[in-house]
Write a structure and sequence with these properties.
20 helices, disordered C terminus, about 15% strand, nine-stranded mixed beta sheet, alpha/beta, seven-stranded parallel beta sheet
């Protein structure tokens, strides 16, 4: 069976956890070359390996957040899972707490969550580091002697796999990967540095020439994942398999091979480095079990693999800075990627203009970007316009809702699928100018977690603007959390704040209030809000009053406190009035008020006050009623990517 046939035979949908990593990116891209029902997860850093991958095939996942993990699993409903997530494989990743949290603690929680789900195969990327000092062609059941925190965490993970496979009958296996090399490898590693030097006609400086490694090409490793998934059966649940070439190559051998294969005249330089416990001299795989059980063996000879790597890096370096393609790069985690989420309703003519202006803004800032247009069941041809744009720009993704759920639900829908370091929320009518994103990014990079647009003026009649400003002042005064005045949804929100906003599960959400509620460092940027470029606003007085009620009743109990105070004052007034009446009756009987007019006025006053109080209580009870029904805040009908409109896998995340 060839590779394409193996990919087609996998039980889908497929989830690739850790797709922004070296092995994960190769897996995701290989699967996407054959089928589209695959989603890769990203977490942090510069996802340069995923450039060009459709946004619909990516999802943000924080393995240490069980709510986020559950949401991703529910949305993708995977049958086959390839788990390539890890931390600590590189010597500069020395945070031992994060190593164990990522590689073992979070992994255990994930398996615990998945054990009751119907999955066909879970293939986990382990490491030959699990053997530690016992690295000379060990069998899978040989003793492990871990020599680093990373090795300890991986041994613990493989033990957990054995437990869940044998005790819980979970279809999970562990692949102990040896020295994987190939496209998209971190540029600080030996083989990429080797390729970069070879392209310049030189050789890198090698460590001790007697140190051996078992080099295995990514093409072979990717096929091993597929073979493991297809071979899954109860007899191998919980097993580990060595994935390597079975051949030891010393650094001295590698240098000689390079000189011969690439015509390098320079003599290699070696330097023995002391104190590196992971530099075990003899390191190679015993692949007997993999060959017998999985039917897998490495096929790519080292010299051929090196040529492929050199060719790949040569083409890649024409477009990329070699020094940036590593986790060690100083530009990493410096806020270089954004997801724009555009809520669209009756905005068909504005969408292409919004796209052009957003792309221009992102390119000016040299940002890695993603644009999500959320078609909130617009009655026009918005979905078709988004489809046409996505066919030309792979960074564009579309979401179509099953009906109109409102802009707040549209923004939340996009935020759940955003995969970049921050989100920018914009209305699709072009009243939120994309050019202001440059100022947002400046404030974000200076340390702000949330940057919101503050409307100092609106292109509308003076009297109407007066009512808007009055509402914001009343709302700010009543709210129990500090809410900026004249700030709408237009804002940049860092991933950390987005995470906490998504934890707020109210169905009738008021995002600008939630944005203030989560806190973090927030700053405003002043701008003049223009009039709509096309059509007329879908807002009216009734909708604006509804917005005002939503904001006030979601973030303030002041009306209830006012009712309590008002009732107390009226009660006191009634007691004083009764005492006064009795006193007047005794002292001056003829002075007591006569007739029914006074009685009617008092009854009307108390009656209207009671009705008002019941109405206010009813508003709060109504919100409680909406929340207790627990209906989904939105339903995704379709996802749009690369010119295709496809049914959403699961449009109703819990």
């Amino acid at each position: 069976m060839n590779l394409s046939s193996k990919i087609e035979s996998l039980n889908g949908p497929i989830l690739v956890i850790g797709a922004s990593g070296f092995v994960g990116a190769n897996l995701l891209r290989e699967i996407l070359s054959v089928r589209s029902d695959v989603v890769g997860t990203v977490f942090s850093g510069d996802p340069w390996r995923l450039t060009g991958v459709p946004a619909t095939n990516l999802a943000f996942m924080n393995l240490q957040d069980p709510i986020n993990v559950a949401s991703v699993v529910q949305q993708t409903a995977p049958k086959t899972i390839f788990d390539c997530s890890s931390f600590g494989a590189y010597s500069f990743e020395s945070d031992f707490d994060r190593i164990h949290q990522t590689n073992y603690v979070s992994f255990i929680k994930l398996l615990e969550y998945l054990k009751d789900h119907e999955i066909s195969a879970y293939v986990h990327a382990g490491s030959s580091s699990e053997y530690g000092f016992n690295a000379a062609a060990p069998a899978e059941d040989d003793v492990t002697q871990p020599n680093s925190h990373y090795a300890v965490s991986k041994v613990a993970a493989s033990a957990a796999i054995s437990f869940y496979g044998s005790v819980h009958d979970m279809p999970v296996v562990n692949l102990r990967l040896y020295s994987v090399y190939g496209p998209y490898e971190d540029s600080s590693r030996l083989i990429p540095v080797f390729c970069e030097k070879v392209l310049n006609g030189t050789l890198p400086s090698f460590a001790d020439p007697s140190v051996g490694r078992d080099f295995v090409h990514t093409d072979d490793v990717v096929e091993a994942f597929f073979d493991a998934a297809l071979a899954m059966r109860p007899e191998i649940y919980g097993h580990s398999f060595n994935i390597g070439s079975g051949t030891e190559t010393t650094l001295g051998n590698l240098a000689s091979l390079a000189k011969e294969a690439f015509g390098i005249e320079e003599e290699p330089q070696f330097s023995a480095r002391e104190g590196r416990a992971w530099d075990v001299k003899k390191w190679m795989a015993n692949t007997d079990k993999s060959q017998k059980v999985l039917g897998w063996r490495a096929k790519v000879p080292l010299v051929d693999g090196l040529r492929r790597c050199v060719d790949w890096w040569e083409s890649s370096l024409k477009e990329s800075d070699f020094s940036r393609l590593t986790k060690k790069a100083p530009t990493q985690n410096k806020k270089n990627s954004l997801t724009a989420i555009v809520a669209c309703y009756r905005d068909e003519p504005a969408i292409p203009i919004m796209h052009r202006r957003l792309v221009a803004a992102f390119r000016k800032l040299k940002l890695d970007y993603q644009i999500i247009f959320v078609n909130d069941a617009s009655p026009d041809a918005s979905a078709e316009v988004i489809r046409e744009i996505s066919a030309k720009d792979p960074a564009v993704m579309g979401i179509s809702h099953s009906r109109n759920f409102g802009s707040q639900a549209a923004f939340r829908s996009g935020m759940e699928l955003a995969s970049k370091e921050a989100c920018v929320l914009l209305d699709g009518d072009l009243q939120d100018p994309p050019e202001l994103i440059e100022e947002f990014v400046k404030k974000w990079r200076e340390g702000a977690d949330i940057v919101y647009g503050r409307r100092i003026k609106r292109d509308m009649p003076v009297w109407l603007e007066f009512f808007y400003r009055t509402f914001y002042r009343i709302f700010a005064g009543l709210s129990e959390v500090p809410i900026p005045k004249n700030a709408g949804d237009f804002s940049l929100i860092d991933r950390s704040a987005v995470y906490w906003m998504l934890q707020c599960q109210e169905r009738d959400a008021f995002l600008r209030g939630l944005r203030a509620y989560v806190g973090f460092e927030q700053v405003g940027v002043d701008y003049v809000r223009p009039e709509r470029m096309f059509g007329v606003s879908t807002n009216n007085w009734f909708k604006n009053i509804g917005w005002a009620k939503k904001g006030i009743f979601s973030f303030s109990r002041v009306p209830l406190h006012a009712l309590t105070a008002f009732g107390a004052i009226l009660s006191l007034f009634a007691v004083l009035l009764a005492l006064s009446t009795v006193t007047i009756r005794i002292v001056s009987p003829g002075s007591v008020p006569q007739g029914i007019t006074t009685l009617l006025l008092v009854v009307m006053f108390f009656g209207s006050s009671t009705i008002l109080a019941i109405g206010l209580l009813g508003e709060y009870v109504g919100k409680i009623f909406e929340e207790t029904k627990a209906r989904p805040a939105f339903i995704r009908r379709a996802l749009i990517s690369r010119g295709e409109i496809k049914p959403a896998i699961d449009g109703a995340p819990k």
